[in-house]
């Protein structure tokens, strides 16, 4: 496996072999990220494969994946590093009387007392890694500001130790569900990729890749039903991963067709809210029961 992609076509092929069907823009940005050494900001609705792209890059390049899952209230102690206070206290208690405070003070702020979190782990890794900063839009602007040093200079400043420079440059992917506008300072430091739900033909390829045993007609009908469901006003539209899960479930059940009864039985695989279940059963289930979908495809 190559540590980075040498051409756009190699990026597309490598991601495909890792189980991710990349379009032209995705292959281009993935290729440039490695060659330019710049982070990639991947935005789009939930469930379109943003996180999976980072996993596929990790598999395709043979790099370890280090993931920082963002959430509201995330601070640098959980993202960068923190000191092992219990170990420091034990050191002070056992040696302060003999060694003197000045010597112990310098000693307890060494690397042995440091607890690296995902960002510091990625920066200080001896081997190149893929750093995934997932759902960055769930944090606040103060956290974004803290990230800028990592994203632009690939370094972390620790007051007690000094500057920690990256031993190897990580491939950094940041994902966002676009729930809030990110700062211009962060966007300037990143390449940008927008991912949306794929069209029917592209999603059919994805389903075939992960569930090749599924009959062609069944696979197409499944994808068309999923697209009908996404067109409804749902709390949570089905993701691409849930399309794949549904295909695998139909195979396990030995389903020969997707009719109203089969949809009713397996709907919870792609629909995850109680009110959404009723809406899908009413709108999509009725169409399947009346044979409208089949007539549309025949036409």
What layout of secondary structure does this protein have?
Layout: H1 8-17, H2 24-36, E1 40-43, H3 50-61, E2 64-69, H4 76-79, E3 81-83, H5 85-99, H6 101-107, E4 114-116, H7 118-124, E5 129-134, H8 141-153, E6 155-158, E7 162-165, E8 171-176, H9 184-188, E9 191-194, H10 200-210, H11 216-230, H12 240-253, H13 260-266, H14 274-289, H15 292-298
Parallel strand pairs: 1-8, 1-9, 2-5, 5-8
Antiparallel strand pairs: 3-4, 6-7
Helix pairs in contact: 1-2, 1-3, 5-6, 10-11, 10-12, 13-14
Order of adjacent strands in the largest pleated sheet: 2-5-8-1-9
Mean pLDDT: 89
Listing every helix as H and every strand as E from the N terminus to the C terminus, the arrangement reads HHEHEHEHHEHEHEEEHEHHHHHH
Query: Any idea how many domains?
Result: 3
Task: Compute the number of strand runs.
Answer: 9
Choose one word for the global shape. Answer: elongated
| Proportion of helical residues | 40-55%
CATH superfamily of the largest domain: P-loop containing nucleotide triphosphate hydrolases
Radius of gyration (CA) equals 24 Å
First-last Cα distance: 46 Å
Could you list the spans in which at least 5 consecutive residues all have pLDDT below 50? none
User: Would you tell me which CATH topology of the largest domain applies?
Assistant: Rossmann fold
CATH class of the largest domain: Alpha Beta
